[in-house]
Design a protein that fits this description.
Pfam families: 6PGD, NAD_binding_2. By secondary structure, the protein is an alpha/beta fold. Bound molecules: NADP nicotinamide-adenine-dinucleotide phosphate.
Length: 489
């Protein structure tokens, strides 16, 4: 071990601070790549010792304090922080800044809120040290075998850390799932939207399962087969694959399907809520993601759900005539709703990039999500192609491939949403996605009436369709119209 006086010769080319599940797996991943020697540090030494004991093959360079950790790293020093997001990250940065020098690089690989990353980057940059906020997706398995990595920070830092991150990232179709997303908080912003899309994708899959189960009476094991089959088509993705696995699982204690003994209250760690809160601030409708976040909140309100259990439901009975046709309708409704969720997510990335001055290449983002991360899917290639053929695409769902897919799916989508409403089955993400689609398509929206109402009670004015200028009707007077701001034409 390096001593606190820093006498050990610096020979590690990268260090990891924080050796819980993510940090220890990333440290092992780094150590397994040729040319890397990995320094490790954890606030409490037990985790460092455990990792050393369990993985002597990794050749880790352990330290018991920050000074020794810094001394064990060759210059420019590079440290990856994988600690509890929030105060933990700030505490580690404060310590590293004391022992690092200008030109060194601190990477925060935790799930930081992008505005925290912007703040930290600014503060750390003032010391001459580079700070990179990097979104890392893929959970503990991805961390060990190859995650999808979304780094922000400066181009200078990327030049140094790019090769290291490429060496540990997942590989999809021969390409590493990492790219320099943009400056300061861009990486964590994109990771946040990734998580929001993940929420929507999971909710849509859950709704599809629920509709099939209630509509056809199939067992979880039978529905597992449906998902396994879907995984060979255009829905092919990690989330569809693991859905089939979860539905197939039988509880050893009760011999029931595991899904039937799991409490139906979904947890959340907050990144979905951040995606929605940020979208609200940016004025971007991410209704599919929002419904997914709210559906988890609703599920976790047992008292309200118990009190509402006796509320009246539909009187008519609901029967599915042809189970195979119904399942195909659900599949297409899922695909169409998924297109909406991704389109909305990319809208948020575009809006964030404009707001914060990031040059984000949308097609590159879809590419680095093809492997390693939770939303990895075949479908992401179509997004990359869409942005490659039209970088200025105003909405993803208007790209030719998606227009064709929506054309194929919309009949099924409408049938499923209507049937769910008729049967009294909750399908918030399916139905809100369809409502968004129809809202976007509509050439005339009732927003005109809202403008009229706003002008009536608050003199908020309105524009007209037939001439330029800003107008107000004298609602409490003689109701003539006045031009409040004459047009310059
Ligand atoms: N788990 C996942 O699947 C996943 C996926 C993607 C991203 N992430 C993100 O990756 C990061 C690490 O996640 P994790 O699950 O491995 O760990 P975690 O449970 O979020 O955090 C535990 C680690 O943080 C350290 N820590 C906490 N407060 C500290 C402080 N004030 N100073 C120094 N160290 C401190 C702990 O040190 P001690 O051992 O001394 O307590 C421990 O090493 C988090 O930001 C998380 O959100 C997690």
């Amino acid at each position: 071990m390096a001593s606190s006086d820093g006498t050990q010769s610096p020979h590690a080319n990268i260090g990891v601070v924080g050796l819980a599940v993510m940090g220890s797996n990333l440290a092992r991943n780094l150590a397994s790549r040729p040319g890397n020697t990995v320094a490790i540090f954890n606030r409490s030494y037990e985790k460092t010792q455990t990792l050393m004991d369990e993985h002597p093959e990794a050749g880790f360079v352990p330290s018991a304090d920050y000074a020794a950790f810094a001394a064990s790293l060759s210059k420019p020093r590079t440290a990856l922080i994988m600690v509890q997001a929030g105060k933990g990250t700030d505490a580690v940065i404060d310590e590293l800044v004391k022992v690092f020098e200008p030109g060194d690089i601190i990477i925060d690989g935790g799930n930081a809120l992008f505005t925290d990353t912007i703040r930290r980057e600014k503060a750390v940059r003032a010391t001459g040290i580079n700070f990179v906020g990097a979104g890392i997706s893929g959970g503990e398995e991805g961390a060990l075998t190859g995650p999808s990595i979304m780094p922000g920070g400066s181009a200078e830092a990327w030049a140094t850390i790019g090769p290291i991150l490429k060496s540990i990232a997942a590989v999809a179709e021969g390409e590493p799932c990492v790219t320099h997303v943009g400056t300061d908080g861009a990486g964590h912003f994109v990771k946040m939207v990734h998580n929001g899309i993940e929420y929507a994708d999971m909710q849509l899959i859950a709704e599809a399962y629920d509709l099939i189960r209630r509509g056809t009476g199939k067992s979880p094991a039978e529905i597992s087969e449906v998902f396994a089959e879907w995984n060979h088509g255009e829905l092919e993705s990690y989330l569809i694959e693991i859905t089939a696995e979860v539905l197939r699982q039988v509880d050893a204690e009760t011999d029931k399907p595991l899904v039937d003994v799991i409490l139906d209250q979904a947890g959340a760690k907050g990144t979905g809520a951040w995606t929605v809160q940020t979208a609200l601030d940016l004025g971007v409708p991410v209704s599919g993601i929002a419904e997914a976040v709210f559906a988890r909140s609703l599920s976790s309100k047992p008292e309200q759900r118990a009190a509402a259990a006796e509320l009246p439901g539909p009187v008519d009975t609901w029967t599915v005539e042809d189970a195979d046709e119904f399942i195909e309708d659900v599949r297409l409704a899922l695909f169409a709703s998924k297109i909406v969720a991704y389109s909305q997510g990319f809208d948020e990335i575009v809006a964030g990039a404009a707001q914060y001055g990031w040059d984000i290449k949308k097609g590159e983002i879809a590419k680095i999500w093809r492997g390693g991360c939770i939303i990895r899917a075949q479908f992401l290639n179509r997004i990359t192609e869409a942005y490659a053929s039209d970088p200025g695409l105003v909405a993803l769902l208007t790209a030719p491939y998606f227009v064709d897919a929506l054309d194929r799916a919309q009949g099924s989508w409408r049938r499923i949403v209507a049937m769910a409403a008729h049967a009294g089955l909750p399908s918030p993400a399916f139905s809100s996605s369809l409502a968004y689609y129809d809202g976007l398509r509509a050439q005339r929206l009732p927003a005109a009436l809202i403008q009229g109402q706003r002008d009536f009670f608050g003199a908020h004015t309105y524009k007209r369709v037939d001439k330029p200028g800003i107008f107000h009707t004298l609602w409490s007077g003689d109701r003539t119209e006045i031009e409040t701001e004459p047009s310059s034409h």
